[in-house]
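[User] I have long wanted to understand how a fold can be written as tokens. Those tokens are not coordinates but codes from a learned vocabulary of shapes. Could you go through the record with me and say what the backbone is doing? Thank you; the sequence and its tokens follow:
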Amino acid sequence: MAASSLGPRLYGFLFAAAAIVSAVMLVTDTNLRTDFGTVTSGYYLHWYVILITAVADAIGAVGLWVVGSRRAVQVGTVASGLLILILLGDIFTYSAVGFATAGDFANYLFGITYYGGNIRYLYDLLLGVYIVTFGSGLGLLAARRSRPPKAPTPPVAPSSGTHP
């Protein structure tokens, strides 16, 4: 494996970590599945959003492992930045899940106030993984851009067939 493709391939493990945290959240958090018990059949909308991000993270991890290119890192960096915004923006959907204020919902999401369920600290962890992923992507892109170009290999003179 070429050293230049090792960084993007390792970068893929951050996306795999995000997919795993999301999967744990999907399986364990009853509040996420049922909107605090108000949804009795099927799953609640926020559960599907986490499912979509988990699938996207898994696809991103595999893409980085297989492709390992600068373009794949660019896509991953943009995606992780957008996912940070989505997770922070989710706080403003507080009224859709029955919280009186965005602050109350943020307290729940970030484990400050316990409301039951098992999301405690998983949301923080997922946001942290995305922040590390975004920062690592920026670092990889900066490092790959600052590498000096390879010097051209001088041509080899043709052999005359006689040796001194």
